[in-house]
Amino acid sequence: MGNWGIKALESDNGLDFIGFLEEFYAEKLELSLSEIITILIKADFLSDDRNNIDYLYDNTAISLAELFLMFKEKGELDYDNEDERVSLRKKTQFKSDKESIEFTLQYLTDIKNEKPDEDGEREFVELWKESDSYDKWQEHLNGLITGLKQNIM
Question: Which Pfam families does the UniProt entry name for this protein (predicted)?
Answer without folding.
Answer: DUF4259 (PF14078)
